[in-house]
């Protein structure tokens, strides 16, 4: 059966979606907030996610970005927000489709079927290994020499953006926008501080990093 994760904090809508999807022979899991959605997706990877944007603990765009850190699972977003810019932001973050509330169940089901048809198989819970450390993108865990390395949420986010782009140059501005937001485009000192912290925790020789490499004046590169 196709596994669908439905994420919405409205109990009535969540129940209606689950009933309708199960009636059409989908295996349905539910979550009422963003953190629960990410935990569900990591522990039991779904074939498709139906995601409300207005969640109590985080914006749905953050959930999309979190999922896109390790999976290409189709994501169909539901939202009462109907502005063009909201839709652009959500689709740019990695969502596959956007359905505005209120919606007809038949339309949503058609969009789900279309998203599943377009889907390509994706690796489940990928683990990226280097000679020095291992990053489990789904579990949000880094290990070195068999021991878990404790990272702050910001350190993890910086590392995740780099690891998601192996061998590619990530510009300072891109990294600042993804981790801190567009208002921090010029705060390059933040990057120097956090990359230094990550190197101390992960690189065998922090002064001569092999995996978290600086491209002077431009950005950073993760070399597996």
Overall domain count: 2
Helix content: 40-55%
Which structural category fits the helices and strands? alpha/beta
Strand adjacency order, main sheet: 2-1-3-4-5
Overall description:
- The protein is α/β, with parallel strands linked by helices and 224 residues long.
- It folds into 2 domains: 3-118, Rossmann fold; 127-222, Winged helix-like DNA-binding domain superfamily/Winged helix DNA-binding domain (Arc Repressor Mutant, subunit A, Orthogonal Bundle), CATH 1.10.10.10.
- It is built from 8 helices and 12 strands.
- A 5-stranded parallel beta sheet has the order 2-1-3-4-5, with helices on both faces.
- A hairpin with a 2-residue loop joins β8 and β9.
- α2 (34-43) packs parallel to α3 and α6 crosses α8 (188-202).
- The relative contact order is 0.10.
- The mean pLDDT is 89.
What is shown here, in short?
By secondary structure, this protein is α/β, with parallel strands linked by helices. Helices cover 40% and strands 21% of the residues.
Secondary-structure blueprint of this entry?
Elements: E1 3-7, H1 11-23, E2 27-31, H2 34-43, E3 48-52, H3 60-68, E4 75-79, H4 84-93, E5 97-100, H5 105-118, E6 127-129, E7 134-136, E8 141-144, E9 147-149, H6 153-163, E10 169-171, H7 172-179, H8 188-202, E11 212-215, E12 219-222
Parallel strand pairs: 1-2, 1-3, 3-4, 4-5
Antiparallel strand pairs: 6-7, 7-8, 8-9, 10-12, 11-12
Helix pairs in contact: 2-3, 6-8
Task: For this entry, give a set of tags.
single chain, 224 residues, alpha/beta, Rossmann fold, Arc Repressor Mutant, subunit A, five-stranded parallel sheet, 8 helices, 40% helix, 21% strand, elongated
